[in-house]
Amino acid sequence: MALVAGAVSAQKPAAPTPTPVPAAPASANVNIPVSKMAVIYSDMFLDAKGGILKFSALITKLNGEFQKPKDEINQMQQRGQALDAEI
Question: What's 24's DSSP letter?
Fold first, then answer.
């Protein structure tokens, strides 16, 4: 009796069979949506003569505002490179 119980518990359950996905008929009409694409040359925003003056003024203001943290990061990077070279 023990051998039969051991043999039954050692059997693995059958793996589930995957459900087949029905293939689409070859003559099915597929509607492709109409879409539009635009290309924006962002370099032109910063052009001194033909660019957007308000945009370039804002960029100049932001660059001035964040110059100190940028300089600190550059100094840390240079120090890290110097320490790496020293090691």
Answer: P
Decide: 45 and 51 in contact? Cβ < 8 Å.
yes
Reading the block at residue 14, the tokens are: 């059958």
How many angstroms separate the CA atoms of 73 and 87, rounded? 21
Cβ–Cβ < 8 Å for 12, 18: no
- Taking the whole predicted model, whether its pTM rises above 0.70 is answered as no
Q: Which tokens is 81 given?
A: 């490179």
* Identity of the amino acid at 36: K
- What pLDDT, in 10s, does the model give residues 15-40? 666 666 666 565 567 888 888 888 88
Pull the structure tokens for residue 66: 């964040």
**What is the spatial distance between Cα 65 and Cα 30, in angstroms, rounded to a whole number?**
53
Contact, 45 vs 57, CB < 8 A? no
